[in-house]
Amino acid sequence: MKSLIVHARSFAAHVADSERAESFRALQSGQSPEALFITCSDSRVVPSLITGARPGELFELRTAGNIVPEYGGGRPMGETATIEYAVRVLGVRDIVVCGHSHCGAISALVQGDDLSAAPAVRDWLATQAAGSSFGADLADAVQRHAVAQLDRLRTYPCVRERVEEGLLSLHAWYYEVHTGAVRAHRPGGDSSTFGPL
Fold first, then answer.
1. Any idea which UniProt keywords this protein has (predicted)?
2. pLDDT tens, 183-195?
3. What is the C-alpha separation between 68 and 192, in angstroms, rounded?
4. Of 63, 132, 139, 130, which is closest to residue 100 (Cα–Cα)?
5. d(Cα 153, Cα 113) in Å, to the nearest integer?
6. Which segments within the chain are labelled E, that is strand?
């Protein structure tokens, strides 16, 4: 934690002295991100590092297993509010669901891990990933899961409307944490058809 604190203390001075100072000042007038990037909470997955996005270019939603919760469900959810805000208020043109290699959440589902010591995690995965079918191959399972989240997104009224109007595109990506490689789902193929971006 000490190195993080040291960096945070010096960050403002670094910004002020950098060539990016003006772009940081422009952020005070609001945000206009290009995309909503939904990915896992895993600390090895850093959306701005993967995409090269600068502040203000990505609106992010991070959940265990990059799960998009079912729409509705009888109670407000922060994830649902984030998706709706990105689409209806910020007007993002793209939503990316990015799964990743070595994903602990999907691995737990594939292997049937005992998560009784982490009941919130167990219940989140059990209820939100219900209906997903996984084989034994983790990479394939993660990719199929990312595509399934696109199907779940299409049940959101705000997403469905914008997609039908041609104002929103949905993408499933797979990121390899050990190589940095990113592959994208190829529409028209099955849920395991991923290739280079």
1. Lyase, Metal-binding, Zinc
2. 999 987 666 689 9
3. 19
4. 139
5. 27
6. 35-40, 58-63, 94-100, 169-175, 182-185, 194-196
**Residue pLDDT, tens place only, 91-138:** 999 999 999 999 999 999 888 889 999 999 988 888 766 556 667 789
Measured distance CA(14)–CA(6) in Å, rounded: 12
DSSP code of residue 29: G
Tokens 């990113």 belong to 182
Contacts of 48 (CB under 8 A, 6+ apart): 54, 58
Three-point CA angle 123, 172, 146, nearest 5°: 20
Retrieve residue 137's tokens. Answer: 């191959």
Helices 119-128 & 104-111 angle (0-180, nearest 10): 80
Q: What is this structure's pTM?
A: 0.89
